[in-house]
């Protein structure tokens, strides 16, 4: 049987490839972005109690009403933004589902979506499936937005621009001037919307995270995506949420109801309670210490570390050690040194290779120390 493919160029993701290679060679896996330490004991206790409560049936499609109220309160505390829980919020099966749903709802055949490379690989696929056209714009070598190039890429056919700060994979964060430039871009293109991926919003280090929620000129033209999985190191729960003005959210909900209908009921109920006791502000210091500890460990290696201003990813340059491609170097790192990382070129649609690799430092210190000891042999 011949089966036609809507995504003929899509194969196994680099994350799966590197994890499989790590497993094959018994390597320490610092490639995929998931923590390996225990979740907050308070959250574990809440879940244990919820299992025995009557919370096992479908929730409303938009989300558990109590959780929606708590998310609205979180937005007010974090950003001084008031939202209507019933019309401007949506609980999603992880941030990736939120991104997919939003693009399916808002992008029509032939419309363009601007993506800033390097970028998360789940941005492009829903654009293609919607019949849209991804327009990739390369960031500057220091991973800051190239605004002249972005302005040249946006046209009357552009429906969305996808932004991500703190940025995966680079760990850079947007500046005030970046947001001013974005606002000026929207002024020039009245039909352009912003899809803001803010899954690392509570993991920004030297300066507080700046969000579209802060910007009065952006709120009515933006939809944001957040992740409880990233914030509370519960990535396997696959629970996130979206914020958007009512007219935009109404269209997103139309797709959401036929894609997943509603999200895991026990997880939603537990998170609604947990948001009353957790201090999201403490996440910044927790992951900053992880970053600093890992950087100190790697200081004894021959790798050169790039600035890490947010997320739980650290980029390292190896160009002074080898002229190999970053893919070849990352594979050799697994086979010969027993540590798995991600080659950053795989986040570029054109394969741009600056000889940078990405490590995830959201691991316990024992794991990070063991990896650093192996990397000293480089």
Characterise this structure.
This protein is of the alpha/beta class. The protein has two domains: 14-37 and 281-375, Aspartate Aminotransferase, domain 1 (Alpha-Beta Complex), CATH 3.90.1150; 42-274, Type I PLP-dependent aspartate aminotransferase-like (Major domain) (Aspartate Aminotransferase, domain 2). It is 39% helix and 15% strand. The chain is built from 14 helices and 13 strands. It has helices at residues 14-25, 41-50, 65-79, 95-106, 124-129, 147-153, 176-188, 216-219, 228-231, 246-259, 265-274, 282-298, 326-337, 365-375, and strands at 28-29, 89-92, 112-117, 133-138, 158-164, 193-197, 222-227, 240-243, 304-305, 313-317, 339-340, 342-343, 356-360. A seven-stranded mixed beta sheet has the order 2-8-7-6-5-3-4, sandwiched between helices. A four-stranded antiparallel beta sheet has the order 9-10-13-12. A two-stranded parallel sheet has the order 1-11. Helix 8 links the parallel strand 6 and strand 7 (222-227). Helix 1 (14-25) packs parallel to helix 13 (326-337), helix 4 (95-106) packs across helix 10 (246-259) and helix 12 (282-298) runs parallel beside helix 14. The longest helix has 17 residues, at 282-298. The radius of gyration is 21 Å and the shape is globular. The model has no long low-confidence stretch (mean pLDDT 95).
């Amino acid at each position: 049987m011949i089966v036609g493919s809507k995504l003929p160029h899509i194969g196994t993701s680099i994350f799966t490839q590197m994890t499989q290679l790590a497993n094959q060679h018994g390597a320490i896996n610092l490639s995929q972005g998931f923590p390996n330490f225990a979740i907050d004991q308070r959250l574990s206790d809440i879940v244990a109690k919820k299992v025995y409560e009557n919370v096992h049936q479908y929730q409303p499609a938009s989300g558990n009403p109590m959780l929606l109220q708590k998310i609205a309160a979180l937005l007010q505390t974090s950003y001084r933004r008031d939202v209507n829980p019933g019309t401007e919020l949506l609980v999603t099966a992880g941030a990736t589902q939120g991104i997919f749903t939003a693009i399916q709802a808002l992008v029509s055949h032939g419309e363009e979506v601007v993506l800033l490379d390097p970028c998360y690989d789940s941005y492009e696929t829903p654009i293609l499936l919607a019949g849209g056209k991804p327009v990739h714009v390369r960031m500057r070598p220091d991973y800051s937005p190239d605004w002249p190039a972005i302005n040249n890429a946006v046209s009357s056919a552009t429906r969305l621009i996808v932004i991500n700060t703190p940025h995966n994979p680079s760990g850079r964060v947007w500046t005030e001037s970046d947001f001013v430039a974005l606002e000026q871009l929207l002024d020039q293109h009245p039909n352009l919307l912003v899809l803001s991926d803010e899954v690392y919003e509570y993991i920004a280090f030297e300066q507080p995270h700046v969000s579209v929620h802060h910007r009065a000129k952006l709120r009515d033209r933006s939809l944001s995506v957040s992740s409880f999985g990233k914030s509370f190191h519960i990535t396997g729960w696959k629970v996130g949420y979206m914020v958007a003005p009512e007219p935009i959210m109404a269209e997103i909900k139309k797709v959401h109801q036929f894609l997943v209908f509603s999200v895991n009921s026990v997880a939603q109920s537990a998170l609604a309670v947990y948001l009353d006791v957790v201090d999201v502000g403490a996440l910044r210091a927790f992951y900053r210490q992880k970053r600093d500890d890992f950087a100190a460990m790697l200081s004894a290696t021959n790798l050169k570390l790039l600035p890490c201003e947010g997320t739980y990813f650290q980029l390292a340059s190896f160009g002074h050690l080898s002229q190999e491609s970053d893919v070849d170097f990352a594979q050799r790192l697994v086979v010969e040194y027993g540590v798995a990382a991600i080659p950053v070129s795989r986040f570029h649609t054109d394969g741009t290779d600056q000889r940078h690799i990405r490590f995830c430092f959201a691991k316990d210190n024992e794991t990070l120390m063991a990896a650093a000891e192996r990397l000293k042999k480089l």
